[in-house]
UniProtKB/TrEMBL annotation:
Stated name of the protein: NSE3 protein
Species this protein is from: Rhadina sibilatrix
Gene3D superfamilies the UniProt entry points to: MAGE homology domain, winged helix WH1 motif, MAGE homology domain, winged helix WH2 motif
Residue ranges annotated for the MAGE domain, each copy included: 1-197
Listed SMART domains: MAGE
An example Gene Ontology CC term for this record: nucleus
InterPro entries in the cross-refs: MAGE, MAGE_WH1, MAGE_WH2, MHD_dom
Pfam families registered for this protein in UniProt: MAGE
Length: 199
């Protein structure tokens, strides 16, 4: 059961979609439901030792899990395929923007910012495809981003925040250092971001 669960989790993680306990029970653990925690703990150990991946529960009410990579990262290098790397690059830019703007940004501000990078919503991008879909659906489904509606706005407006996967996988200190490097400033230049990154 353990090795079957490990394979199941690795396949699910390819799409970076959070994994529900119900799916693990239904598809893998089945009649061994009494040994659920034992099987999950052992699968977690195997993932950690063999693949350097950590099984993390991101929602204890709904019992959803994600795998996060905790092999030491060479700065800015992620273990992923090229297209994935580019998407990750875009995601990191978006997360940096959100963090530097005080942890939440309006959708209009985000699209304006992406405009400056010549990435337009609703226009096919040669690397990212449909950018609006990538940002509002894929990154949200993967729990890198969260979108919340801003009350009483007409037409409706939304705010973007870091999702639980971003909080677990990406260090705010790395983000701040990268921004500081790009802007040629010391990270302490942004006092509130600096104290949050160091916390």
């Amino acid at each position: 059961q353990v090795s079957e669960l490990v394979q199941f989790l690795l396949v699910k993680d390819q799409k970076k979609i959070p994994i529900k306990r119900a799916d693990m029970l239904k598809n893998v653990i089945r009649e061994y439901r009494d040994a659920y925690s034992e099987i999950v703990n052992r699968a977690g150990k195997t993932l950690q030792e063999v693949f350097g991946l950590q099984l993390v529960e991101i929602d204890s009410k709904r019992h959803t899990y994600i795998l996060i990579n905790n092999l030491p990262r060479v700065e800015g290098k992620y273990l992923c395929r090229d297209e994935e790397k580019e998407k990750m690059g875009l995601l990191l830019i978006i997360l940096s923007f959100i963090f530097m703007k005080g942890n939440s940004v309006k959708d209009s501000a985000l699209w304006e910012f992406l405009h400056l990078l010549r990435v337009y919503p609703g226009k096919q991008h040669q690397v990212f495809g449909d950018v609006r879909k990538l940002v509002t659906e894929e990154f949200v489904r993967q729990k890198y981003l969260e979108i919340t509606p801003i009350p009483l706005t007409d037409p409706p407006e939304f705010k973007y925040h870091w999702g639980p996967r971003a909080e677990k996988e990406i260090s705010k200190r790395d983000v701040l250092n990268a921004v500081a490097k790009i802007q040629g400033k010391d990270p302490t230049f942004w006092a509130s971001q600096y104290s949050e990154a160091e916390a």
